[in-house]
Amino acid sequence: MTQAHICFSRSRRTASLGLSEIVVISETAARRRAEGCDIIALSTGEPDFPTPDHVIAAAHAAALAGQTRYPPTAGLPQLRAAIADRAGDGMEPANVIVSTGAKQVIFNAFLASLDPGDEVILAAPSWSSYRDMVTIADASPVELPCPMITGFKLTPQQLEKAITPRTRWLLLNSPSNPSGAVYTAEEFHALAEVLRRYPQIRIVSDEIYEHLSFETFASFRDAAPDLAERTLTVNGVSKAYSMTGWRIGWGIGSTDLIGAMLAVQGQSTSGACSIAQAAALAALTGGQDLLAHRAVILRERRDRTVGRLDALNGIVCPAPQGAFYVFPSCAGVLSRRNSDGEPIGDDAAFCRHLLDNAGVAIVPGRPFGMPGHFRLSFACSDVELDEGLSRIEKAVAGLN
Ligand SMILES: Cc1ncc(COP(=O)(O)O)c(C=O)c1O
């Protein structure tokens, strides 16, 4: 008997979502590499350093000790306590949720709090996942352009103008992916001044790159303690401790919000991996010298990257103050032509040109909400970085 073919139709909330361009580029680079092509991947958002040995040892010990059963939905009590302790400011374990990466913390928060028609304000450029997570939660992202000339940062005037009765969240990310912008405490004070007038708005402060700051790091919670009840601080071990694959992040917020997020988490993952949580606990409570040591290495790579890219005709590369990305403008090369006489056209075509002709993978600015730029990650070995930069120099010089 033949079966009628039933077409799959996507839900309304996921109809507009595709695979992120960042993932597409990274996977294309990985595939070409596996096929034997000589590709330098400067596209991925993860440190090249290894997970520290003592962290791996703690995971091994936890597995051998039988920490292999369902974890408490909110996270291991010792880990929640360590996170609350680091946060200070009277935070208790009840203010903490441990999730499967910082990404899931934000996802839980949006799913737990947003209704159709609600709005979330984002500074563009910003991490492309924010927009998609808001969309999945049936709400609307409101992206405010924060160009290079203003340091890629949101101003209080911009914020105030964008607020409507449906605004539910302001999403701040400092240090920023992709721009590396770091807000000062004074800049947070100025934004907080506006937010005090709109009690319906909560603030997500994504601080996942906290330990990768080249300037003094300010946390929104510390800068505006009177807004602590409305602030969800997001952090995790992925970037600081080179633990992207372990998938542990956390949120710190008011107990009502954390409770609502727990309801979502309880019906999606049942909590984060117990062994990875033991590893995260070891990362947080073990020696922290590696953080400063790695920041020094990254600063050196940043300086080298900025110096070489900014020297290129048509590229403007401001120095990021944190994270491990540069987000240069490539507007000056978009009117040029490749060796076949074809115009480059836009940032996506520029990145494709580099991948196809120079074997370098970088990400266009478009998925971050700012076309005309590209994101290059310098979280790779010195050898790869130098070779990648040399190839970009040669490819840009070859455009007419
Ligand atoms: C700004 C930002 N927040 C959150 C995340 C996700 O972190 P995690 O790996 O803990 O889910 C990323 C990862 O790229 C990021 O760039």
Description:
This protein is of the alpha/beta class. It folds into 2 domains: 13-42 and 289-397, Aspartate Aminotransferase, domain 1; 53-285, Aspartate Aminotransferase, domain 2, CATH 3.40.640.10. It is 38% helix and 12% strand. It has 13 helices and 12 strands. It has helices at 21-34, 53-64, 77-87, 102-113, 128-136, 156-162, 185-195, 220-223, 255-266, 274-285, 289-310, 347-358, 382-397, and strands spanning 40-41, 96-99, 119-124, 140-145, 167-173, 202-206, 231-236, 249-252, 325-326, 360-361, 363-364, 374-377. The strands form 3 sheets. A 7-stranded mixed β-sheet has the order 2-8-7-6-5-3-4, with helices on both faces. A 3-stranded antiparallel β-sheet has the order 9-12-11. α5 links the parallel β3 and β4 (140-145). It starts with 20 loop residues before the first helix and ends with a helix. Pyridoxal-5'-phosphate (PLP) binds at residues 45, 101-103, 127, 173, 177, 206, 208, 236, 238, 244, 249.
What is the molecular shape? globular
In round numbers, the mean pLDDT is 95
Q: Which small-molecule ligands are present, each listed once? A: pyridoxal-5'-phosphate
The percent range for helix content is: 25-40%
Task: Give the terminus-to-terminus CA distance.
Answer: 62 Å
Strand order of the largest sheet: 2-8-7-6-5-3-4
What is the beta-strand fraction? 5-15%
Please state the CA-atom Rg, rounded to the nearest Å. Answer: 22 Å
> What is the CATH top level name of the largest domain?
Alpha Beta
Number of strand segments: 12
* N to C succession of SSEs: HEHHEHEHEHEHEHEEHHHEHEEEH
**Sheet with most strands:** 7 strands, mixed
> Are there runs of 5+ residues with pLDDT below 50, and where?
none
CATH architect. name of the largest domain: 3-Layer(aba) Sandwich
- Please, how many helices? 13
Q: What is the SS-derived class?
A: alpha/beta
User: CATH superfamily assignment of the largest domain?
Assistant: Type I PLP-dependent aspartate aminotransferase-like (Major domain)
- State the domain count: 2
